[in-house]
């Protein structure tokens, strides 16, 4: 039981390049989330998916898109990376709305030059 | 006013002492409260959740919630060097999926 996995662990992009961050969970959770963490800013929600087939914007969605591919997988895409998107990205999942314990993946460190 | 406020620290305590971490929130619709621990370079992990006023104890950890005063605190008894980490508080509004996180308090437990 791997929990929440994320790929890649680290990525360097040039401004304007695109990439997709992958997230998968094997806990049969309904809800999945993407956060970014910046120094002094805490964890900020980018997008979330309450259940398979639904996605909603969080606090900082601009510049990102998401896909809930199936119950297990939730990907985050940067279409045209900007230096302001340099951050650590965490994926999380939770069982359902009533039980809000969120389990986090190991994170992806992204550097945009 | 920030939705969640935490003192960034660092908070330094000697080994064996009680560490007290505090968090205030502005949203009176908040119903669920959480404390996460995050070691440097690692992901957050849940250590406590609390939903009603009063104290909740789990081993060396005690979470305290006061909804009237809009604060939640975490006490760590018999602090160990392995407790050195950043502690994030978070809350969830009633009926919503989303958690709002504070910026975290760095705790250092010194030998």
Kindly describe this structure.
The complex is a heterodimer of chains A (113) and B (111). Chain A is mainly beta and 113 residues long. Chain A has strands spanning 4-7, 10-13, 19-25, 31-38, 42-49, 56-57, 64-68, 74-78, 87-94, 103-104, 108-112. Chain A is globular. The mean pLDDT of chain A is 93. Chain B is globular.
Question: Key terms for this structure?
Answer:
heterodimer; A: 113 residues; mainly beta; 7-stranded mixed β-sheet; 4-stranded antiparallel β-sheet; 11 strands; 51% strand; globular; B: 111 residues; 6-stranded mixed β-sheet; 5-stranded antiparallel β-sheet
Determine the strand fraction of chain B and express it as a percent band. over 45%
Mean pLDDT of chain B comes to 91
Shape of chain B: globular
The count of β-strands of chain A is 11
The profile of the biggest β sheet of chain B is: 6 strands, mixed
The rounded distance between the terminal residues' Cα atoms of chain B is 37 Å
Average pLDDT over all residues of chain A? 93
Number of helices of chain A: 0
Helix content of chain A: under 10%
Summarize the structure.
The complex is a heterodimer of chains A (113) and B (111). Chain A has strands at 4-7, 10-13, 19-25, 31-38, 42-49, 56-57, 64-68, 74-78, 87-94, 103-104, 108-112.
List the helices and strands and how they pair.
The complex is a heterodimer of chains A (113) and B (111).
Chain A: E1 4-7, E2 10-13, E3 19-25, E4 31-38, E5 42-49, E6 56-57, E7 64-68, E8 74-78, E9 87-94, E10 103-104, E11 108-112
Chain B: E1 4-5, E2 11-14, E3 19-25, E4 30-38, E5 45-50, E6 54-58, E7 61-66, E8 71-76, E9 85-93, E10 99-101, E11 105-110
Parallel strand pairs in B: 2-11
Antiparallel strand pairs in B: 1-3, 3-8, 4-5, 4-9, 6-7, 7-8, 9-10, 9-11
């Amino acid at each position: 039981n791997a929990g929440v996995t994320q790929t890649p662990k680290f990525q360097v992009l040039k401004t304007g390049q695109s990439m997709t961050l992958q997230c998968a969970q094997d806990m049969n959770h309904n809800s999945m989330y993407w956060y970014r963490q910046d120094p002094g800013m805490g964890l900020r929600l980018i997008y979330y998916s309450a259940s398979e087939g639904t996605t909603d914007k969080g606090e900082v969605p601009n510049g990102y898109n998401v896909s809930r591919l199936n119950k297990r997988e939730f990907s985050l895409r940067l279409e045209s990376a900007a230096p302001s998107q340099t951050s650590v990205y965490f994926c999380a999942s939770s069982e359902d709305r009533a039980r809000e314990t969120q389990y986090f993946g190991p994170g992806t460190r992204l550097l945009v030059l | 006013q920030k939705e969640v406020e935490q003192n960034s620290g660092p908070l330094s305590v000697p080994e064996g002492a009680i560490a007290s971490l505090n968090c205030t929130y502005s949203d009176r619709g908040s119903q669920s409260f959480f404390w996460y621990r995050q070691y440097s370079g690692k992901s957050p992990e849940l250590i406590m959740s609390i939903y009603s006023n009063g104290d909740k104890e789990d081993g060396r950890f005690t979470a305290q919630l006061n909804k009237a005063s809009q604060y939640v605190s975490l006490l760590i008894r018999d602090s160990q060097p392995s407790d050195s980490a950043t502690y994030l508080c978070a809350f969830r509004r009633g009926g919503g999926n989303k958690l709002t996180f504070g910026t975290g308090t760095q705790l250092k437990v010194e030998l």
